[in-house]
Amino acid sequence: MDETVAEYIRRTVLKIPKDEIKMMLQKWGFLSEAQLQALNFHQIKDNISQEVVQLCEENSADIKQAALLDIIYNHIYQDKRVWSVYQMKKSGEELECFDITDFKKKFKRQIRSALKNVTITFKEYEDNAIWIRVAWGTPYKKPNQYKPSYVVYHSQTPYVFISASVIRSNMPLLCQALIVASNYHDIREMELRSHSLNSLKDIVFKRYSQNFQTNLTKPLQGENVEPEIADIRIVQENRSEKERIYRLNQEIFGSGPQPKLEFAQYRLETMFKSDPKLDVLDKKEPFRCLVKFSSPHLLESLKSLAPAGMADAPLSPLLTCIPHKARNYFKIREKKGLFPESFASP
Amino acid sequence: QESVDPQKTAFLLRKSWTLYSVTPMYRFRRSCLREYARLLSASIAAEKQKGLAVEVGTELDVRVALSSLAELRGSELDDAALLVQLSSRSKASSRNSEDKLVWSGWFCSMFGDDLSENLPEDFTSLPLFLSHGAESYTALVGSWFQKTFDCCFRRLAISPQNLSWMVAMWAGCKLDRAASAVELVFSVPRLAQPLDISYAIHPEDAKALWDTVQKTPGEITQEEVDVFMDCLYAHFHRHFKIHLSAAKLVKVSTAVASAHCDGTVKILHSQYLPGVLMLLTELAISQIQ
């Protein structure tokens, strides 16, 4: 077995939390049941990984198997990475049946035609997701197995989720290979990024509970609209205002759980406007700002701002549009014309 | 105000300093610096013998140096700044006799006459203390000074009001080269899911705004700071409908300096060093009084 492969397997096993190693090796399926039984999972991780390497040596593991173990690890710990979303476009209305073998063949061919030193590995999962791992080399160097790119493609959709390595220069080649292999003609990066791969899928596949327009001004029969007053010191409060905020929140955010995003970024290039009495800045050029919101669960956090008294209800559409516009990076310019208070987001 | 020699103060820049207020020191003699260094060194060695938490290699020999920085003061009424440096030389590699600086701290008074002018003679007023390095060393040095000169160290808290003052003042500074953004960081902790908001303004635009707010050059009033902040809050509210004024301002950052509410500061530009130190001295004095 190649030394670099042995080292790579050793380091991959070391990344896995001790009580998950057995499960992950089972999922991998490369070591036999007998070998797994013989392994002592109660020793220190260093020793476990050494034993795993020895067993892989017995089975003559090569880089393909090692790469597969890496995919399995990253599939389980997918939220450790930051994922970007790309959308592919078809030129016509061709209805083609997706052929996975054809896809893999074309993908590999496209990449290898430009770069020989690559390791390409595929794994299919139950939810129609195809995971692709690409380790990149150069014309003179073998692939760097420690900085691969991961691609998740749902073949029934035009969306691709990519967690690229640091090597941005390989992106054009990766994108080209994807559209050639999947019979699309164009691909563009969406302004949508998150650690939570599932939430990104929820957003683009519209799997979350969306806002709905309602003409109901009264709560539905039997539904308890009034949120509980947790603080017993509050005796008298503007109940109708509280109800209004609660109802607006439900309308805008929906009543289900929000997709999990960690940040939203707004590049503002709008004009600074102020009370003329203040006699301050009155420039004809934009007041340039960069605003970043971050939270372990951004949308839930924003949803709680108005009830907490921190924001007006309804909240600004710049924030509430995040899921249905499927983006969390924005550039905001002033919209010219009739409505000076509205903004254009290209 | 004498201009500070950039070379001598280069060590101050681009480091994160933890701030303390220090009450006046009793019977501190500027002529005894070498003696003090010896005593402090012995004190540190004794503490290490006791096995108290000093997170360094067991064979390290810590050397103490005390020096005066005459340039770092506002006026003749201020005492010169006092620098304490801890270096280590590994006993193992004695042929390589290079000392490695492991901790530094300095006492300073920049226009601190509010405190010093009414002091009896035996007292030295250096109300601002800045440290950089392991907390365990800060504790050792601090407790020695407290015991020896009967003074008291307290972490300096920087309130959101102080931070607003700083960002307004520093945003208005004229800088000769390309500056970094004026950034305000807010925290909304008490939500079920905490929220952090970073609001960064292009330095030219922030300065343009401040220039129209400030009515008298060379003088800043609380009212002007409030107007500046209200403008920033209003611009933010116009877009996001969020009341930033209800959030907690925890950090401000400009090309001149940055400061965090937990009492740390980073000074980035030597030109404005005296101004920054003056503001911090003022904060230290009001914490003491």
Describe the structure.
The complex is a heterodimer of chains A (346) and B (289). By secondary structure, chain A is α+β, with helices and mostly antiparallel strands. Chain A is 34% helix and 19% strand. In chain A, a hairpin with a 4-residue loop joins strand 2 and strand 3 (129-136). The radius of gyration of chain A is 26 Å and the shape is globular. With 289 residues, chain B is an alpha+beta fold. In chain B, the strands form 2 sheets. In chain B, strands 1, 3, 4, 5, 7, 8, 9, 10, 11, 12 and 13 form an 11-stranded antiparallel β-sheet that branches. In chain B, a hairpin with a 6-residue loop joins strand 9 (182-188) and strand 10 (195-201). In chain B, helix 2 crosses helix 4 and helix 5 crosses helix 7. The mean pLDDT of chain B is 87. Chains A and B meet through strand 7, strand 8 and helix 10 of A and strand 10, helix 6 and helix 7 of B.
Order of helices and strands of chain B: HEEHEEEHEEHEHEEHHEEEH
Cα gyration radius of chain A (Å): 26 Å
Q: Which word captures the global form of chain A?
A: globular
Q: From N to C, what is the helix and strand string of chain A?
A: HHHHHEHEEEEHEHHEEHHHEE
Stretches with pLDDT under 50, minimum 5 residues of chain A: 212-227, 337-341
Tell me the number of structural domains of chain B.
2
Total of helices of chain B: 8
**Beta-strand percentage of chain A?**
15-25%
Query: Biggest sheet of chain B, in brief?
Result: 11 strands, antiparallel
Strand count, sense and barrel status of the largest sheet of chain A are:
6 strands, antiparallel
> How many beta-strand runs of chain B?
13
The helix count of chain A comes to: 12
CATH class category of the largest domain in chain A = Alpha Beta
The assembly state of the depicted protein chains is heterodimer
